[in-house]
Amino acid sequence: MNLILLGPPGAGKGTQSKLLSERFNIPQISTGDILRENVRDNTPLGQKAKDYMDRGVLVPDELVVKMVSERLNENDCSLGFILDGFPRNIEQAMALEETLEQDAKRIDHVIGIEVETEELIKRLSGRRVCKRCGAAYHVTFNPPSKEGLCDSCSGELYQRDDDKEETIVERLRVYDEQTLPLVEFYKERGLFRKIDGAGGVEDITSLIVGVIGK
């Protein structure tokens, strides 16, 4: 079973991808992880990607697609995969479609997790990260025992720049502009399944499993 999870920042794609990966025993594939692994391993693609990342610009679609294609050809993807954070635009979706067709594969379901904008801002702006060990907290949903201090190492908690409200609003705008058109792209192919992402983690997982079963 080959799945794509779509949704704006803060919708819970990463959390649901991990849970579905464990449930169906298929790998969760994140473009962020792939980029970091290629850069860390100093692969030819990683060297090219690092040049763009060091300049603070987006890695071109062509490179990202090549990295994802290579990852999908690894043995652990033989029974299926879950794509988290890819594709991000129509061009990437078309390239993915072409790549899968060459291997006689296809996407089975595209799960769109939808959450109201106000809720997304609340989720993202409330995140705090430990400067020392990197542990993550949330001021509402997962607060530390002592305000501003990590439970694990007593390190100082801080708010990342990309979790500040003005940055979040811009990230959501970019999502609407670039990624939201994918909904129509996959609706035309009869693959899109809409999920309400406002409930609890387990409830959302149950909804996803339910639409996949149908």
List keywords for this structure.
single chain; 214 residues; alpha/beta; Rossmann fold; three-stranded antiparallel β-sheet; 15% strand
Task: Give structural notes.
This protein is α/β, with parallel strands linked by helices. The chain has a single domain (2-127, 168-213), classed as Rossmann fold, CATH 3.40.50.300. 48% of the residues lie in helices and 15% in strands. The protein has nine helices and eight strands. The chain has helices at residues 13-24, 31-40, 44-54, 61-72, 90-102, 117-125, 165-179, 181-188, 201-213; strands spanning 2-6, 28-30, 81-84, 109-114, 127-130, 136-138, 157-158, 192-196. The strands form two sheets. The protein has a five-stranded parallel sheet with strand order 2-3-1-4-8, with helices on both faces. A three-stranded antiparallel sheet has the order 6-5-7. A hairpin with a 5-residue loop joins β5 and β6. α1 (13-24) packs across α9 (201-213), α2 packs across α4 (61-72) and α4 runs parallel beside α5. The longest helix has 15 residues, at 165-179. It is globular. The model has no long low-confidence stretch (mean pLDDT 92).
What's a concise summary of this model?
This protein is an alpha/beta fold. The protein contains nine helices and eight strands.
Main β-sheet description: 5 strands, parallel
Number of strands: 8
Domain count: the total is 1
Tally of helical segments: 9
CATH architecture tag? 3-Layer(aba) Sandwich
Q: What would the principal axes of the Cα set say about the shape?
A: globular
Under CATH at level 1, the class stands as Alpha Beta
The CATH homologous superfamily is named: P-loop containing nucleotide triphosphate hydrolases
How much of the sequence lies in strands comes to 5-15%
Helix and strand element order = EHEHHHEHEHEEEHHEH
